[in-house]
Amino acid sequence: MSTNLPFSEVIHFNTCSSPTASRPGTVSLVGAGPGDPDLLTVKALRVIQQADLILFDRLVSEDIRALFPASTPAIYVGKVKDRHSIPQDQLNELLVTKARQGLNVCRLKGGDSLVFGRGSEEMLRLKKDGIEVELVPGITAASGCTTYAGIPLTHRGLSQGCTFVTAHAEKDLNVSWSALAGLNHTLVFYMGLSKAGMISSELIEAGLNPATPIAFIENGCCPQQRTIVGALSEMTELVERESIKSPALIVVGETVKLSEQLQWFSNLSEPEIQQLSA
Questions:
Q1: What is the rounded distance in angstroms from the CA atom of residue 85 to the CA atom of residue 26?
Q2: What is the Cα–Cα distance from 203 to 182, expressed in whole angstroms?
Q3: With contact defined as beta carbons under 8 Å apart, do 208 and 181 qualify?
């Protein structure tokens, strides 16, 4: 595995490079998927292996980080609620600076870069400065984690659509709860664990049945994945009783009822789970 550099040491990295290389490098915004290294795309792995520098987020799993080439510097630029290793504007500048030094940068994000990953913000900044950018799609958590939990996002007769919602916002959470409640979709909330009580109360107030099935998927697509199933009205109780920790996805909808019949990952033995990632 490559040597991981804390952000405080970034300014010392590659100081021998010219501030403006004769030929700028490129930035690849790469989706690492939801955690299982086998869910990386072939292209994502190739970009990781060929990069001069890797900047990775918190949700890039240890198993995926183990695939980083030993000779490639890797810098943690992750964000936790109320604690960012580097402000977004400084991260944008870092991407521009390293590309101008002629480095090919792999900007590695959990899931997909353009699904609640701020990849579009970074791409706009890079394009503004004339930096060549490519996008490598990744499996987003709503798809990967629900599949490993045996919860279909759509199912004939139960749900004809799915809606992804972020429970995190810069300021106010601008969500039309009445619209969500009336969709008859499978609802998937990203970054919603700390707002589970609000999600429950708002959806019930908007008309969704309190008995609507819900699931928390903790550490999805990883060996330690847990799926906790219950009703919309008991979301807060489940978080406390089951000590659910981040990262966790919240799924709301009738398709959750199929999880017991369709589960497969939780039925695997530990050796079988390890074999999946071998």
A1: 23
A2: 10
A3: yes
Q: What pTM does this model have?
A: 0.86
Beta carbons within 8 Å of 116's beta carbon, 6+ residues apart: 164, 166, 168, 190, 191
- Residue ranges per structural domain of the chain: 4-139, 142-266
Single out the catalytic residue among 36, 52, 57, 112. Answer: 57
Q: Which residue has the tokens 């995926």?
A: 64
Give pLDDT tens digits for 119-173.
Answer: 999 999 999 999 999 999 999 999 999 999 999 999 999 999 999 999 876 567 7
| 57 included as an active-site residue | yes
> Which CATH superfamily groups domain 4-139?
Tetrapyrrole methylase, N-terminal domain (3.40.1010.10)
CATH 3.30.230.10 is right for the domain spanning 142-266: no
Q: Pick the catalytic residue: 36, 43, 52, 79?
A: 79
Q: Quote the radius of gyration of the chain (alpha carbons, Å).
A: 20
Residues in the chain, total: 278
**Are 4-139 and 142-266 in the same CATH fold?**
no
Q: How far apart are CA 22 and CA 143, in angstroms?
A: 42
> Residue 127 catalytic?
no
Can you tell me whether residue 230 is helix, strand or coil?
strand
Q: pLDDT digit string (tens) for 62-118?
A: 999 999 999 999 999 987 665 657 899 999 999 999 999 999 999 999 999 999 989
